[in-house]
């Protein structure tokens, strides 16, 4: 619960200057909120669970590298939290160095592990001899550069000022139009109102693996004309053959077609966790297939009542 | 409506001595009812529509020859009637002749057109030179034999006494264990109570043909674990590309999985006609797939309400 007498508090993956902080700052009204950095994704989520903050922002997937396993696993099997919003941020790195350092001086480059493969080709082409080092965040990489541990960091250009560094090269990325998807989390709550351009996230648990298990699940969506936007299988950790599917799809839990698909999923899966329904950042409106509008469900239900006599 | 002051009245495909009459006589309590023969399937159904009778019995399908098109088309597109029961009768013909006639005397054999292909091989083997003639019913064929028009009739052995004929050969059929399925009809009404071994019949109309139309319909059943027992496509008569599917499947309209499948069908089809839910004559209990029991639907619905907040 938000205490009206104090500003909204957000946890995010710090330190200051991360892409996550940039994502958080893009939330309307977030500039007036309090931002509390944590060192790891689990720490961010635990802060929310312990009610140290009202909301949390973490990365969920990157269009080049795929999903962020730590976030997925925590939300799928940790103490439940709910996605209430998402943010898309273009992936574009800057090469940050201490003032005066030139390309020829760079023998080491640090970044978050997810940044490295996204700049792999650029690094090979421009600083082929530099050694790459992992940091827990791009901002931490910048801090290490400021401290003199490494020569350069791949980070958001917005991190330069914060760490007293210079932007040597801007707009580094191997793939054009790459974006990172961040999610805004709260403790379990009523979902935000449907906007017509929503996304829903659930985790489906397969208790005992059997042939056709995935097809069975996908059919629950396809038969109601629902388009999946992300699917990731992950082991649950409860032994071989026990796994889960993280699924994002078009629509809101309040939509009739989504409700029926979720009930279908609930019936055929060992368990289903509802992770949230929220407005899509890209505002893409789903194509609602003939026969799957709310109105079609209402009419069909009225008809069924009539024939049941 | 049945008038309590007079016996139940049944219309059936006559004349007396048909397999349909034998099917009707097998209905519990039907011996005390009034039986009114009509010359054709449409005449039987119209008598029920015009309220000349309370119920009607007609053949729907034969395990050797398939469905009876006249019955299917009338029930699919004529003024609605409802199936409230079914009867299975073994297909077994007798060769009926005037007393004293022997196999060597037989130069002509009459029967209903559906009987002929079921005895084709037997006829070819035993009376290869006899000419076959169509009659509007097997009983009418027997009448023609009694009248001296033909030498023999293929009919139920129970028809012999009625027409003063002798049974020359019994138990004639090319295929072992063949059965005919008859249905009991009433004017539209509340379906009989579910028994746990029920069948439901619907007609689905495809307004505009499109690729995958049949798969779309079948998926509505398969995703809810419902097994089809009969499917027949027929033109609706409303022009090329406009057709319908007659579908019989396991379960009762009161079952949750059936209700949801029917609503699904109603949403994706141009129109759906409910033709009836009724006890199966063979009393075969459906295998209800994991997750499709009524209880599973109830639990899923409760869960959905909880996550919708």
TrEMBL record, chains A, B:
Catalytic reactions of this protein: prephenate + H(+) = 3-phenylpyruvate + CO2 + H2O
Pathway annotation from the record: Amino-acid biosynthesis; L-phenylalanine biosynthesis; phenylpyruvate from prephenate: step 1/1
Gene Ontology MF annotations: prephenate dehydratase activity
Pfam family, one: ACT
Keyword Transport: no
Keywords carried by this UniProt record: Amino-acid biosynthesis, Aromatic amino acid biosynthesis, Lyase, Phenylalanine biosynthesis
Catalytic EC class: lyase
Gene3D superfamilies per record: 3.30.70.260, Periplasmic binding protein-like II
Domain (ACT): residue spans on this chain: 202-277
Record-listed E.C. numbers: 4.2.1.51
The Prephenate dehydratase domain, residue ranges: 9-187
Protein name (database record): Prephenate dehydratase
Organism: Actinomadura graeca
């Amino acid at each position: 619960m938000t205490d009206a007498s104090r500003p909204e508090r957000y946890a995010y993956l710090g330190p200051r200057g991360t892409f996550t902080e940039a994502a958080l700052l893009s939330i309307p009204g977030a500039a007036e909120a309090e931002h509390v950095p944590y060192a790891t994704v689990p720490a961010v989520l635990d802060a929310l669970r312990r009610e140290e903050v009202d909301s949390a922002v973490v990365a969920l997937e990157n269009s080049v590298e795929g999903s962020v396993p730590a976030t997925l696993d925590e939300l799928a099997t940790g103490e439940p939290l709910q996605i209430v919003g998402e943010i898309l941020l273009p992936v574009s790195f800057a090469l940050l160095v201490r003032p005066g350092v030139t390309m020829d001086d760079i023998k080491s480059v640090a970044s978050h592990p997810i940044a490295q493969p996204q700049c792999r080709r650029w690094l090979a082409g421009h600083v082929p001899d530099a050694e790459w080092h992992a940091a827990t965040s791009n901002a931490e990489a910048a801090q290490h550069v400021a401290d003199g541990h490494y020569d350069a960091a791949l980070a958001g250009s917005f991190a330069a000022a914060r760490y007293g560094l210079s932007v040597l090269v801007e707009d580094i990325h191997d793939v054009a139009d790459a974006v990172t998807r961040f999610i805004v989390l709260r403790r379990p709550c009523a979902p935000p109102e449907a906007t017509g351009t929503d996304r829903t996230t659930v985790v489906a648990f397969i208790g005992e693996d059997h042939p056709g298990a995935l097809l069975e699940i996908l059919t629950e969506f396809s038969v109601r004309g629902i388009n999946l936007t992300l699917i990731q299988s992950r082991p649950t950790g409860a032994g071989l053959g026990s796994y889960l599917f993280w699924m994002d799809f078009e629509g809101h839990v309040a939509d009739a077609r989504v409700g029926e698909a979720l009930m279908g999923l609930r019936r055929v899966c060992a368990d289903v966790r509802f992770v949230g329904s929220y407005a899509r950042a890209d505002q893409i409106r789903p194509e609602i297939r003939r026969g799957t509008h709310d109105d079609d469900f209402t009419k069909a239900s009225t008809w069924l009542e009539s024939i049941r006599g």
